């Protein structure tokens, strides 16, 4: 019932967006319209009830995030594909993993990922804590096993100490689940406030006129039916047939999920080319046109694309300083299991 | 003549080290002895006359150092193999490069590398500026070409701007040589002052008794005949037959250079396992024993190895904060040449 009411509300808002000419909209009205769809980033990292965020855990998570010893080869870390210096992605069509294997899908950004309702393009993981454990054991990504990684970490006294501090109530804290919790805790801090957030908080001048026009079009054309919420995406699933990838069907085996994907966040989208799960479109303008035609059955004019692109560029956020400070990783010991290529 | 005099001096110092029992040496005498072989790190980065260090150039160099778009695949950066979070190395026996190709030699640390008299295990490069350009074009490392890399950088406005600022007098600043100069400038800042430097500057308590015993043995056993100077190594060449690698012979084609290698720095050696150009020894103590037997024809007692290892661990330096701050890399543009796997 609540859902139906929300959908009616959304429909009315979309209609308003469509009918009201831009010239008659002032920035304040646009802000009110936008507030029905979007929320600014929270001021503090969103925590998960069973994974309280502590400085010790966040530090450990950052170290693990950067540590290639979580991979069988000792060459690939989380940061290899979700590079904090590059908008949280690798800039590749699809990521390279163990033995130079190209994976099936484009790497989503780690920035603000904690705010997505589900993780992975097919939404098969509920949160960043769970997600973080998966590439470690994926044979075409980091190709390790829990026993290998746990043994490596246990052989390094600094890690033993840090796990004890991060999980003080556990007798045996070095587990894959806790590796995921620590990395997830770190990832929850990776929020990138943007000018759009300032706009949503009331500073209408934080977006210039072209960007506001783009936002208005983003709403009126219906992009917002998928890309909404605090993460401007990351909430819903949508059918997007592009390439052979069956998307969520592989998870649920339901016909309705054929070629269905979790809608990605558009935060920092200007930094995260190439686009789509296929990673085969390199130009944001082209991606906008494709989405309009394929998903909304609309052909956008060049100046509409320009304005929407300008709005999307306003979603490029400030990378938190902590994300840009590298940890120093403790040395391996003679007992540390060796890299295996 | 000066060289002969220096060699006589070295011989006398070695003799003194051998004959004087540790119990009779006080720390101050050891310091004086050590000063004949070693110098503390300079307080400011060592500049090269044709590559003045400017903040703009160092920043550009840091960005390039972390940018995987200098590789053909877009997956490998300087930092992939010379990881600033891991003692400036990759922790692998030999490094992985383009298409998962294992290279022939272990990656030397980038920390303090600017102080080495030559670069690479075979000394084929005179300085870090020249060295930095080589892996970019090496087909089993980054596998790019100058034209590819220059075209990529020219397609990214932020880089065009940064090169102009870093090389203000040049009309066409984006070249492989200047890429090397910028990366080299950054690398020159990567000095890691250690407790041994404090010792060399007169604070004899900066090393504890065991470490001082190790230093004394390091001198008296003759390790210091190769590992000396400001970088505790990095100056000389020495024959070290291990594996099939002919070392410097491949560069000079001179018989005397068969299995000859540039002596590596021992700074941060406790962080840079596995050891030797072969990267096949994982335990510092084992590496010490092998070197003593093979290079000095001496069998060390366990407590001697322990003491020397303790001394070497005192060479683990402080990683400069700047080395541990990631840059944010500018996004590619639709005109940027794509990654090629």
Strand and helix map with partners:
Two copies of one chain form a homodimer.
Chain A: H1 2-19, H2 27-35, H3 55-66, H4 78-81, E1 96-97, E2 101-102, H5 128-137, H6 146-154, H7 157-166, H8 176-188, H9 195-200, H10 209-220, E3 237-239, H11 249-252, E4 260-262, H12 284-296, H13 302-313
Antiparallel strand pairs in A: 1-2, 3-4
Number of strands of chain A: 4
Tally of alpha and pi helices of chain A: 13
At CATH level 3, the topology of the largest domain in chain A is Cytochrome Bc1 Complex, Chain D, domain 2
Q: Tell me what the CATH architecture of the largest domain in chain A is.
A: Orthogonal Bundle
Helical/strand content category of chain A: mainly alpha
Number of domains of chain A: 2
In terms of quaternary structure, what is this? homodimer
Helix content class of chain A: 25-40%
Distance between the termini of chain A: 55 Å
Task: Determine the strand fraction of chain A and express it as a percent band.
Answer: under 5%
Biggest interface, chains and residue tallies? A-B, 43 and 44 residues
Unreliable stretches covering 5 or more consecutive residues of chain A: 20-24
Query: What does the overall shape of chain A look like?
Result: globular
Mean pLDDT of chain A: 95
Give, in order, the helices and strands of chain A: HHHHEEHHHHHHEHEHH
Identify the strand order in the major beta sheet of chain A.
Answer: 1-2
Biggest β-sheet of chain A: count, sense, barrel? Answer: 2 strands, antiparallel
The gyration radius over C-alpha positions of chain A equals: 21 Å
CATH top-level class of the largest domain in chain A: Mainly Alpha
The CATH superfamily name of the largest domain in chain A is: Cytochrome c-like domain
